[in-house]
Amino acid sequence: MDRRSFVRLLTAAPVASAVGARSVPPYRVVSAYAPAALPGMPGPWPGRVVDVRSNACLDPAGDVVNESVVRAMLSRGMRALTGEKSTTDAWRRFFEPSDVVGIKVNCGGHPFVVSSPAIVAEIVRQLVAVGLAPSHVHVYERFQNQLDAVDYAPHLPEGVQIVAAEGWNLRVDNSAYDPDTYVEAELFGEENTRSNMMRLVTRRLTKIVNVPNMKDHGATGVTGCLKNVAYGSFSNVARTHSRGTSHTFSFVGTLAAVEPLRSRTVLQIMDGLSGVWHGGPFAHTRRYVFHPRRILLGTDPVAIDRLLLDVIDEKRRAERAISIWDRSPRFVKLDDTAARDDDPNVNIMIREPGHVEYASTLGLGVYDRARLRLEEIEL
């Protein structure tokens, strides 16, 4: 690796988009890693999404996962994505025995909506089938308390590493983050203006499988592939949204585009077995949980998140809740203690679902719905 420091400055400028002009803060991006010849995002299949559905993947109440059905859904989806006849050959298109693979899970929606242990276990099973040693597989998240709550270990082979960067979300321990790989920006006059990438990502992993959920979010509109791998791999990211204002429009994509995260994130597997249509990224109540019973696969995080925007907004429309695109000030309540879980027509801050389109301007994927190549499979 060339240890020269690649410094990129994104200057403040208005960005034209379908949601109007946004002013982008100046970002200083510092990394010693050059892009791969074929970066993992958007990867070899930009704009392509395989959507596998099965009503049998959950019990009628949505509480119990049918592991054999999930296994079949992933197998069919991977073969459709790659064009390979065997499931193992499909996984070999991405991974080889010498790889060190991270599986970026999402545990923030515990207890009802997290990256399913059944999906994570099947990913690990396929990586081992390709020839990886279990010790070369790392299931990772930012916060240890969230990983502990989900408890993936009983579902995985001995030797798989379960790794967090911090004990909990108090931002007091930065030792697991790389001091030489970061994005710097002052957004609200905060003292700590840097967000550093996890050392696990910069110095250990060679490939990443991103396993987000289908969830809405008070600052980003939705939290899918882009936000899961970006905000889940960097420190000090909650500073981007506060009291009615959100800089997530540009920050999510900016983080996702930083090397080596961009090049090493080679596969997106969105867990849509269950989702959250309001109150996300958490799921403390069943009231806003729904069950799409589907898994979306691809290499393009923008394309998958573009579909997620429609999934969440259509569900909100069906529930007679305001759109994630609604920017009317009358729906914004600046008190961060507002009971957002009790009223789907309250915004704590202006949502920024335009972050998905902005990420496309950074080359991370295809946003235009008409250009997406969607393959729907019903099992």
Describe the overall structure.
- The chain contains 10 helices and 19 strands.
- The longest helix is centred in the last third of the chain and has 18 residues, at 301-318.
- The chain is α/β, with parallel strands linked by helices and 379 residues long.
- α6 (225-231) crosses α7 and α7 crosses α10.
- β12 (213-217) and β13 form a beta hairpin.
- Strands 5, 6, 7, 8, 11, 12, 13, 16, 17, 18 and 19 form an 11-stranded mixed β-sheet that branches. It has a 4-stranded antiparallel β-sheet with strand order 1-4-9-10. A two-stranded antiparallel sheet has the order 2-3.
- The model has no long low-confidence stretch (mean pLDDT 90).
- The protein is globular and about 50 Å long.
- It has one domain.
Topology:
Layout: E1 6-10, E2 14-15, E3 22-23, E4 27-31, E5 48-53, H1 67-82, H2 87-92, E6 101-104, H3 117-130, E7 137-143, H4 144-150, E8 161-166, E9 177-184, E10 194-198, H5 199-204, E11 207-210, E12 213-217, E13 221-223, H6 225-231, E14 241-242, E15 245-246, H7 248-256, H8 261-264, E16 265-276, E17 289-290, E18 294-298, H9 301-318, H10 355-361, E19 373-378
Helix pairs in contact: 6-7, 7-10
Task: Report the end-to-end length measured between terminal Cα atoms.
Answer: 44 Å
Shape: globular
Number of helices: 10
Can you tell me the residue ranges where pLDDT is under 50 for at least 5 consecutive residues?
A: none
Main sheet makeup: 11 strands, mixed
The proportion of residues in beta strands is 15-25%
Radius of gyration of CA atoms, rounded to a whole number:
19 Å
- What's the helix-strand series? EEEEEHHEHEHEEEHEEEHEEHHEEEHHE
Helix coverage percent: 10-25%
Total of domains: 1
Structural class: alpha/beta
Query: Can you count the beta strands?
Result: 19
Average residue pLDDT:
90
